[in-house]
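Predict the 3D structure for this chain.
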Amino acid sequence: MPRAKVSMSGANATVARAAACFREAEGMTGHGAMTGPQRLAAERAFHDRQAADRAVAFRTGRADLVFPDEAFLDHESWVRPAFGHLGDLRGKRALDYGCGHGMAAVVMARAGAAVTAFDVSPGYVVEARQRAAANGVLVECLVADGERLPFAGESFDVVWGNAILHHLDLRRAAPELARVLRPGGVAVFCEPWGGNPLLAFARRRLPYPGKDRTPDETPLTRHDLGPLREHFPSLKLEGHQFVGMVGRLWRNRVICRLGERLDARLLRRFPWLQDWCRYVVITVRKPAV
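Done. Predicted structure below.
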């Protein structure tokens, strides 16, 4: 299969800007109590460890870099509808914002977009690059900080992010997102939500699959979205998994499907229940000139 590579012009300048952005992060404060450099280092180390564990699974044949679109789009109930908000991707310039394992980048590339993917973790950037190569698509992959994006203004038509905004200081990330989006461009983010006090207790106190998280991350709340609304007044919020979150405890497909059906009815009839959901989909659009 062809190797994934940096395919956009000006790649060297992009890398140089990325390095400068990391240097300029010195002294910044983050989403939680850590200083900017401490938080950045902790985030990078945590996700590099995850990527290292995953790399062992790929080398030993316990996991495969090759995957069908459905494996990503249907791995959680909110992903496919959220992806639909990006619209037709053919010929678009797309950014996978905090790409992690790079599956979203591959799906966008398969749909016809010219894709750039970045992450704070060098380990995950390596995996994203390898995954793109294994699936036969071109993706530009680089290490960068979501609060200091190393891209020229109005570079992207669409932006996708999954479980990334709650790691960031949105006072710094929101203006950067607005800067790199083209007029009329759309950004979609799937994020853990902190509006349900019972769920907040469970997140703090109860064991459950996939609970690992960085020391500084907390689910988003409506208050946290203030800086994002300043730049994107038309921000839309959709709650997912109100009843459906129960299925996560048992990983039972039947329970999950039943929960999804109930959620579709309940959230349509009682929109205020979105604040009690496990995840939200945030959609923002930059006004067209």
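The chain is about 40% helix and 15% strand.
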